[in-house]
Structure prediction request, 222 residues.
Amino acid sequence: MPEEVLPGVYLLELDGQKRLATRSDTNISVYGERFVEGYRLWDPNRSKFSALFLKVGPKKWLGKEKILDETSKVLYLGAATGTTVSHISDIVRHGLVYAVEFSPRTMQDLLRLCEIRDNIVPVLADASKPESYCRLVEQVDLIYQDVAQRNQSEIASLNCDMYLQPRGILILMIKARSIDVVASPKEIYSREIEKLNGLEVLITSDLHPYHHDHLAVVARKI
Ligand SMILES: C[S@@+](CC[C@H](N)C(=O)[O-])C[C@H]1O[C@@H](n2cnc3c(N)ncnc32)[C@H](O)[C@@H]1O
Prediction:
């Protein structure tokens, strides 16, 4: 029987391996993921959020700190075609996910996902210009960012200033190679973390072996 390790997130044993899963009302596969007895497997190789949960260990995940539950509001920057967005949409089943993506081509695929899930609000916009979506997005409990851009920390800080409520959580996926191809990832990560204004860093974790040269940062707005 799968164990609910966090609200809406389940740990199950499959072929001798621990796997994460969420539950979906739709039973429609979004990126080729498998369903097992009504649970939607959450692939850590495809979703950095799943990799982060597995790396940190869901049991150690911020203790009693509330990060996400079924009523949370989330601003997701770099939604792509909705792989991770779809799992967050499962978790926040009575909440909302504002999914920001700047590629019109990619947005077409994301729109197909929004048609079958009514808690995702698609936002075609550049995350480095958060004022451009102020009419669509409200204050949120969590900002999740995965944009693979040179100015990743600046984008996160701008959005947290505008949309993250006090004590809200930022989850930032830093891709070292998008920032500097010469410097060591460690050096890049500490430089990027220093640029996060008004946030207290709670957890950092590399995402090896699921994603190389990526650091996940979990921080709380002060
Ligand atoms: C690594 S992919 C995100 C994968 C996604 N987070 C997932 O797990 O399903 C990065 C996405 O961010 C988008 N992106 C990059 N820079 C952006 C920006 N400034 N504003 C909005 N989207 C951006 C890209 O078009 C791309 O779709």
User: Anything to note?
Assistant: The chain has one domain: 44-221. The radius of gyration is 16 Å. The chain has six helices and twelve strands.
